[in-house]
Amino acid sequence: MTAQALHERYLRIFEIGHILVSTLDFNEVMDLMMKKLRDIFKSEVSSLLLVDPKTNDLVFQVALGPAEKTLKQFRLKMGEGLAGYVAQEQKPLIINDAANDERHQKNFDSITDFKTHSMMVAPLVVRNVTIGVVEVINAERGRFYQEDLDALMLITPYAAIAIQNARYSMRLEQMVAARTEELQRANQRLKEIDSAKSEFLSSTTHELKTPLGAIKTFLSVIISGGLGPVNESQKEILHDCIESVNRLLRMINSLLDIARIEAGIVDLDIQPVDVEKAVQGVFRLLRIEADKKKIDFSMQVTPGRVHADPDKLTQILINFIGNALKYTPKGGKVRVEADKLGAEWRFRVIDTGPGMSEEQMAKLFIRFKRLKDIATEDIAGTGLGLAISKKLVELQKGRVVVHSKPGEGSTFAFYMPTSPEKQNDLSEDGCNA
Amino acid sequence: MPKNKVLIIDDEKLIVKATSLVIRLAGYEILSAYDGKSGIALAKKVKPDLILLDIMMPGMDGWQVLKILKESPDVSDIPVIIFTAKEYIRGKEKSVEAGAVDYVTKPFEPDELIDAITRVLGSGPAAASQ
Lengths: 433, 130
Description:
The complex is a heterodimer. By secondary structure, chain A is α+β, with helices and mostly antiparallel strands. Chain A contains eleven helices and 14 strands. A six-stranded antiparallel sheet of chain A has the order 3-2-1-6-5-4, sandwiched between helices. In chain A, strands 8-10-11-13-12-14 form a six-stranded mixed sheet. Chain A has a two-stranded antiparallel ribbon with strand order 7-9. Chain B contains five helices and five strands, in the order E-H-E-H-E-H-E-H-E-H. Chain B is an alpha/beta fold. Chain B is 41% helix and 18% strand. Chain B is globular and about 35 Å long. Chains A and B meet through helix 6 of A and helix 1 of B.
């Protein structure tokens, strides 16, 4: 071979390198590579066999030449035929008289109606593992020389790496697809669980409240004298019964509130709410309570609108103001304020109750933690109110802040956005709960 | 003097019993049905002056019953109060949009329910003279 011809051959071999790193589809790259090899070595047949990682058999990936389709259905065991031999030994071979070589699979020739005489067979090896075999075949005897094999061996290591990489990336894609499918299934399952949970909560509400509701109505009818005269001591007992039922109903509502919040199924109906009306409504409702304890109960509200769920806002206000009235001793003071501070509305409930230590404040919003060390024995409650209120404030993009010292009363404040865009970005010192 | 008739449609027998007691003591005549289908049939038969309608019922729910009542010319004029254990966001508005006149949640205060009935039927239990 002339130096000029050799140079041209190497150039064409390097072209295969460009194909291997191209963005073409794997099958196209392999086809193109084998076509180039067939042409470079002026041959009639070229084939690429890859090791099936599951069975360790050699499978035709490319079979250029006669009977391509038939060949593609064949599998060779490791060690079987010349390709199998090369795969096993990991050494390339030149055969110039295949008909007289025992290792040659002669039935291929009869299937393909092609008489193999000259062959170059090179293994594709990555990190000592055979991943396939390249064959270049001719029907004439004595076609291949060592320089041909040397040229072929220039490209096979890169072809091997390219094939391995393509397999990895295909496997990766399959894994990603499988994981994605798994995630979608898990997601669907979560949705089902969520809706089952929500279903359970609403049916539980129904089941628990219905009999209590009936008891309450019956008791109310009896106490009203509708079914006959009731004396004072009977009335007192009936009144206690009704109060107990109310307490159970409140407890159920609180538990369901917490469960709904934790399950993430709270329906919020956020809208502009008239602050004065909202606070006044609660103020009127709790006035009776304040009067009973002779508490100096006052409110001061800046007119305007807050962005909130009106029912939830009322629930939070009732909880905060109700707590203040509950814990403030007779003759004390409870003051409710609402004012606009920049992008937020600040609601404050200031009491002259016993106040709290830092340690006590840390436990404030933990479910069922009532402050036992303050004289709360005779104060009814579920220990859920503050936990619910805090979550409800936060669900509406607000935050709760508490200031208190033992003996100096407490201030419970919550901040709510003036418009839906405003986030809870203001900070203030104190117990930022 | 004939009394105004109130029909309660609710699958909870205990609730029907308790509610009926309250309404009867307030001086109204009370009829009851435990499911949507028989409630509609009874409404068509006796033409009550007011219907108290539960929402969460097996089979046909209250919203479906309300739709059928409002689409039936012979009973479409009968005022309906939604009577529900499930609290809905803007429950009153939603009920009015669906064709009801009011919305009362259970458990209820007896006075609250009687007030709601009185608001619909006028001052008291006696039926308007025909």
